[in-house]
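Nucleotidyltransferase family protein
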Amino acid sequence: MHAVILAGGKGVRLRPYTTALPKPLVPIGDQHAILEIVLRQLSAAGFTGCTLAIGHLGEIIRAYVGDGSQWGMAVDYATEESPLGTMGPLLNLKDRLPEDFLVMNGDILTDLDYADVLRRHRASGAPLTIATYARKVHIDFGVLTTDASKVVAFTEKPSMDYRVSMGVYGLSRATLDGYTPGLPLGFDELVLDLLRAQNPPHAYEFEGYWLDIGRPDDYDRANAEFTSRKSLLLKGA
């Protein structure tokens, strides 16, 4: 099994932590970088190959990870000369990738079974599988429904339930056909194109532990919770 980790972003939302370090190398707990945790998880799940799509401060990532042998994996690299969006880096890699592979952001802390995502993707026959997570959004205001300048309904500080993308995907290489290598391609654009073509993605619903550490609040939470959750996050790794 093969994974592509998207690790080329500048981590603007996580400054000042990312002023000198690329976001995937910010520390979690006392001993680990987030990227190390992800690589250990992938190796334990049976992934033997990984491509790191790097850009901002990419040489630091390359120096830290090397060839991946310390985790029992073969790691290679793809360098973004300019930002290509979430899916754009894959277009330049297409000939190096297997028929089905995992794609994920490099700043995720989760106990998701990555191998199961890829297995379920293959079984579904879908062009894209999106790992999803339930999130409840609290609105701190009274919400009005209006019609022709008349208030027809009112809800005081409602909560709304959504399923959000976790930043982990199963992808088939053929799904990238028709897109031009070297041009940006966002996850949103790909999903909307698939919906327009009536070829919808498959949803992999997950109810375990997940944090996107792209925001300072979530990064602080990850550090506060890591010690108590280390055995869960690194089980078998």
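thats it. The chain has a mean pLDDT of 90. The two ends are 16 Å apart (CA to CA). bye
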